[in-house]
Amino acid sequence: MTLAAPGSRRPLRSIWPVFIWPALLLVCLIPGLLNRAVSSLSAGQVPVLDTPLWKLTLWHLGLVLSAEVVVLLIGVPLAVAVTRPGRASLMRLAEALTGLGQTVPTLAILALAVPALGFGIKPTLLGLLLYGLVPVVSNAIAGLLAVDKPTLDAARGMGMTDTQRLMRVELPLSLPILLAGVRTSTVYNVGTATIGAALGASGLGTPIIEGLSQQNTGLVVIGALLAALLALSLDGLLGLVAAEA
């Protein structure tokens, strides 16, 4: 997608393709439509789920967005703290520690979290947090470091305090790069959240898990297709927000 200059209005014809994926997702959530469409993959039987697909999709979206809120509440202050002058070693340490989250397989993280947190939402949110931190912290650090020194000097010359420079200059200028990290983190976590169904967190992983246990390909396709459409929808919408920032 071609990005417009910050602050400029984009022509409608360049925006509407973003809404193709959400529209397809809504069509697939029409009760019974997707189930009948994949019946040929389920030995001719229409696959049935106890929970409607729209409820599973909303729950999945809620899980991902909740995790992203926590990721932002931790990631942005962390990036701000380690990019202050004289904290280069702390910055490298923060990048290394957050990077560890993606080096451990998702299933291993969830399995290790279950003894402490039990089954359900808590271990799933922990996994989403660890996986979502890396793009947000890395991009926030990159964005803050990319702010021109002359711009900061000019703000300092105008008498701005450190807090004022951060809020009025550094964060606004680094916002496009930060939003790109949020976009990547969100798309990652749509896929990661499907694994949470194995721990009872529900969501779009539920039809996938049930399909695997019942050897029902139709159910697996339902969960995978809806998760993919949700990820593409969020990616497009967040990309639109980032382009307007």
Walk me through the structure.
The chain is built from eleven helices and no strands. It has 245 residues and is mostly helical. α2 (20-28) packs antiparallel against α11 (217-244) and α4 packs antiparallel against α9 (162-193). The two termini are 15 Å apart.
Write the layout of secondary structure elements.
Elements: H1 12-15, H2 20-28, H3 33-37, H4 53-82, H5 88-103, H6 106-117, H7 121-145, H8 149-157, H9 162-193, H10 205-214, H11 217-244
Helix pairs in contact: 2-11, 4-5, 4-7, 4-9, 5-7, 6-7, 7-9, 8-9, 9-11, 10-11
How would you briefly describe this protein structure?
It is built from eleven helices and no strands. It is mostly helical and 245 residues long.
Keywords:
245 residues, mainly alpha, 11 helices, flat, disordered N terminus
